[in-house]
Write a structure and sequence with these properties.
The structure is a single chain. By secondary structure, this protein is mainly α. It has a domain of 41 residues. 70% of the residues lie in helices and 0% in strands. It contains 4 helices and no strands. The chain is flat.
Length: 127
């Protein structure tokens, strides 16, 4: 017949072999301590996740406040919000726009064959 308490992991196995000749009370305390340790680790991990999720937003808010308080920030925001429509008549803006379109298109066209190469030759991708 098997033992009532079997080791779950390598660490449990090492502790189990150390406590083999001891009373069952030690084994139940070991399980309780493992449970408390795992709860503590989960709490720590959740705190790390909260920090890493929210800290970039705090930094961006600080940088936004700093950028808005700089000299000439109002003029930059007005220039950004109110476009100069006369620049649309020049060919430079249209050439730059077409360049951006083709650049974005080339990235997509290069990615499709790379991803498609993982499919079998007769794979029906339209399903």
């Amino acid at each position: 017949m098997g033992a009532a308490w079997l080791p779950d992991s390598w660490l449990d196995a090492r502790l189990f072999h150390r406590l083999e000749g001891s009373s069952p009370k030690w084994k139940s305390n070991l399980k309780k301590n493992q449970f408390l340790l795992r709860c503590k680790i989960l709490t720590l991990i959740s705190q790390i996740i909260w920090f890493t999720a929210l800290f970039p937003y705090v930094i961006m808010l600080v940088l936004l406040v700093r950028a808005v308080t700089l000299q000439g920030a109002y003029n930059g925001l007005v220039y950004f919000i109110k476009p100069d429509w006369s620049k649309l008549m020049s060919s430079g803006a249209w050439i730059d726009g077409a360049t951006q379109i083709f650049f974005g298109y080339s990235i997509g066209v290069g990615t499709l064959p790379a991803l498609g190469s993982f499919n079998k030759f007769h794979h029906n991708c339209y399903k």
